[in-house]
Amino acid sequence: MEYSVRVMDKHIKVPAQGEKITMKDGKLSVPNHPVIPFVEGDGTGPDIWRASVRVLDAAVEIAYGGERKIEWMEVYAGEKSVNVYGEGEWLPQGTLDAFNEYLFGIKGPLTTPVGGGIRSINVALRQELDLYACVRPVQYFDGVPSPVKRPQDVDMVIFRENTEDIYAGIEYKAGTPEADKVREFLVGEMGVNKIRFPDSSSFGVKPVSKEGTERLVRAAIQYAVDNGRKSVALVHKGNIMKFTEGGFRDWGYELAKREFGAVEIDGGPWCQLPNGIVIKDVIADNFLQQILLRPTDYDVIATLNLNGDYVSDALAAQVGGIGIAPGANINYVTGHAIFEATHGTAPKYAGKDVINPSSVILSGEMMLRYMGWTEAADLILKGLDDTIQQKVVTYDFARNMEGATEVKTSVFGDKIIENMKARKA
Ligand SMILES: NC(=O)C1=CN([C@@H]2O[C@H](COP(=O)(O)OP(=O)(O)OC[C@H]3O[C@@H](n4cnc5c(N)ncnc54)[C@H](OP(=O)(O)O)[C@@H]3O)[C@@H](O)[C@H]2O)C=CC1
Ligand SMILES: O=C(O)CCC(=O)C(=O)O
Ligand SMILES: [Mg+2]
Questions:
Q1: Does 344 carry a binding-site annotation?
Q2: Model confidence over 17-36: pLDDT tens digits?
Q3: Which SS3 state, helix, strand or coil, does residue 393 take?
Q4: 35 CB contacts (<8 Å, ≥6 apart)?
Q5: What per-residue confidence (pLDDT) applies to 7?
Q6: Quick one: average pLDDT of 356-385?
Q7: Residues with catalytic function
Q8: 160 is an annotated ligand-binding site residue
Q9: C-alpha span between 172 and 170 (Å, rounded)
């Protein structure tokens, strides 16, 4: 690929061809040759990205015959960033600037160490760009092996609040002066007497705001309206965490009434929009058993950050696993969006070319659809569907699928491309 001399910072090469995606008056404007930044990711990220980018490019080429093309621009985060930029540079300013300026991006998974070390770069990106909605559709592809009897009954779209909650990582380690200060404040000034072992406790803070809840619930209800869905369920643990998770529920209902004209049904608090969409709520532990026993009761899900994290992996498992679970982090007001899989770096498979690339491919499919390139997005769904029907799959599906041909990540990508070409021929 040719590059211009213009650089964003010394490591980011801006493609010579290509223009920015922009947003004006709430409307996206997507040129035929958009520049889209990508982060390859850690662990299995490079294996997955290599296969995915070929599938995305092929879909666009087959659909539009050269008239449209994505001009990819590599930006760095995670381990590769430290290699390129130097020590401590896990999320360089140039990367943030690129995502900010070019509006859209796509990324592979990034490692977050447990217990210590750096805070999540994934979370930092969502916070820095204020990508407040994590949208994770969960749908079943016919033929995918699943642990449940009727995986086809699962058809949900999770809207997970993406910037607040305990997930924001505001916490203080036991034994530090900061933890001592928090303890002194809680016990000494606030009169809290419920901390069982105050001297050896670490402390975490769970901020949940009205504004944060409202913009997420608004996005979920709007999605339900735009896509003819049946219901929006607010999933929370508001019986225990009354002002945070309970606040999420109450603010959610209030917004549905105030902005969408919902009225209470059966004595409330459930309510209904004039077009019939039901707004309901469910306590999170009950929700986790209900999605297994009667998934057809649920459609669009609006929930807090940590609940959404658990729920998205659990639901993904019902339709075959996180190898096929896409997602997008979106700010619907500014138009910024970073598309990424639900799963992590799966480090034990790194560099082996065996991992399932479907989640990133489907995240790319979401991106193309969001850009309005629906023909290319549809082709990807067909190509993936055909490949699964032919039982040509990666190890994760092969281990539970009778008569499967187990293939490498790269070959799986080739097969999808072959099937997309056959569909178009
Ligand atoms: N957005 C992001 O960038 C995310 C990053 N992470 C980070 O990733 C790292 C590893 O996290 P971990 O908890 O192990 O979770 P992972 O999602 O990385 O992997 C857990 C298991 O899920 C299965 N799996 C994951 N991805 C795929 C795939 N593409 N195809 C098929 N199977 C897959 C594998 O199961 P099996 O062993 O059965 O084959 C794997 O061992 C951590 O540092 C974590 O913080 C985690 C989630 C999201
Ligand atoms: O940031 C991480 O390492 C984990 C994030 C995660 O699990 C998720 O967003 O689903
Ligand atoms: Mg997760």
A1: yes
A2: 999 999 999 999 999 999 99
A3: strand
A4: 14, 15, 18, 19, 20, 71, 72, 73, 102
A5: 52
A6: 98
A7: 167, 237, 285, 309
A8: yes
A9: 7
The finding on whether 119 has its CB within 6 A of some atom of ligand 2 is no
- What is the per-residue pLDDT across 380-407, written as a single tens digit (0 to 9) for each? 999 999 999 999 999 999 999 999 999 9
- Please give the Cα distance from 253 to 257 (Å, whole number): 6
Say what the alpha-carbon torsion angle 364, 367, 372, 378 is, to the nearest 10 degrees.
30
Residue 312 annotated as lining a ligand binding site: no
Tokens of 55: 């599938």
Count Cβ neighbours within 10 Å for each residue of 316-328 and write b for 16 or more, e otherwise.
bbbbbbbbbbbbb
Q: Closest Cα to residue 311, out of 168, 134, 173, 131?
A: 134
Whole-model pTM: value is 0.97
What secondary structure letter does DSSP report for 189? I
User: Are 29 and 330 within 8 A, CB to CB?
Assistant: no
Instruction: Give the ligand 2 atom nearest the CA of 313.
Output: 10
Judged by its nearest atom, the ligand closest to the C-alpha of residue 320 is 1
Kindly indicate whether the ipTM for this predicted assembly is greater than 0.95, answering yes or no: yes
Q: Are residues 126 and 308 in contact, defined by beta-carbon separation less than 8 angstroms?
A: no
Cα 272 to averaged position of ligand 2 atoms, centre (Å): 33
Q: Please state, in angstroms and rounded to a whole number, the distance separating the CA atoms of residues 34 and 70.
A: 5
Residue 68, C-beta contacts closer than 8 angstroms, at least 6 positions apart: 32, 33, 60, 373, 376
Tokens of 45: 């990220």
Please name which of 356, 371, 320, 405 lies closest in space to residue 145, comparing C-alpha atoms.
320
Residue position matching structure tokens 């896409």: 326
Ligand 1 site, residue 112, Cβ cutoff 6 A: yes
58 close to 376: Cβ distance less than 8 angstroms: no
Q: Is 309 annotated as a binding residue?
A: yes
Report the residue among 312, 322, 410 best suited for mutation to probe ligand 1: largest number of ligand atoms under 8 A from its CB.
322
DSSP single-letter state for residue 19: B
Tokens 């529920």 sit at which residue? 249
Tens digit of each residue's pLDDT (9 = 90 or more) over 159-168: 999 999 999 9
- Residue with the smallest CA separation from ligand 1 atom 14 is 346
Of 306, 343, 362, 399, best ligand 1 pocket probe by most atoms within 8 Å of the beta carbon: 343
Q: How confident is the model at residue 86 (pLDDT cuts 50, 70, 90)?
A: very high
Closest-CA residue to 130 (of 196, 49, 216):
216
Q: Where are the beta strands (DSSP E) in 299-368?
A: 300-303, 328-330, 337-340
